[in-house]
Amino acid sequence: GQSQAPSGTFSGVSAGAYHSCGVSASSGHLSCWGGNWSGQAESREDKSYVSVSAGGSHTCWVDAAGVVGCGGGNEAGQLAP
């Protein structure tokens, strides 16, 4: 499925192959939009994030505590920390 780009301002944004993600400037939540066939464009509102990087079919982020996480496709082991 695909989702539409959210409104608002962002402190950071990253474009992958078929999806994009951004960190909300006001809430710190992670918003993603575009192709989501592997879960790479799942938005996250569970905590605050400081950065995001969107890849081909995966996305990685750093939360406010400095913890790295990734989601989406793992065809080449790219989700392993």
Question: What is the element layout, followed by pairings?
Answer:
Blueprint: E1 2-3, E2 10-15, E3 19-24, E4 30-35, E5 49-54, E6 58-63, E7 68-72
Antiparallel strand pairs: 1-4, 2-3, 3-4, 5-6, 6-7
Description of the molecule:
With 81 residues, the chain is mostly beta strands. Helices cover 0% and strands 46% of the residues. A hairpin with a 3-residue loop joins strand 2 and strand 3 (19-24).
N-to-C order of helices and strands: EEEEEEE
For the largest beta-sheet, the strand count, sense and barrel status come to: 4 strands, antiparallel
Report the radius of gyration as a whole number of Å. 12 Å
- Tally of individual helices: 0
Give the overall silhouette: globular
What percent strand? over 45%
Summarize model confidence as the mean pLDDT: 92
> Cα distance, first to last residue?
27 Å
Helix content: under 10%
Number of strands: 7
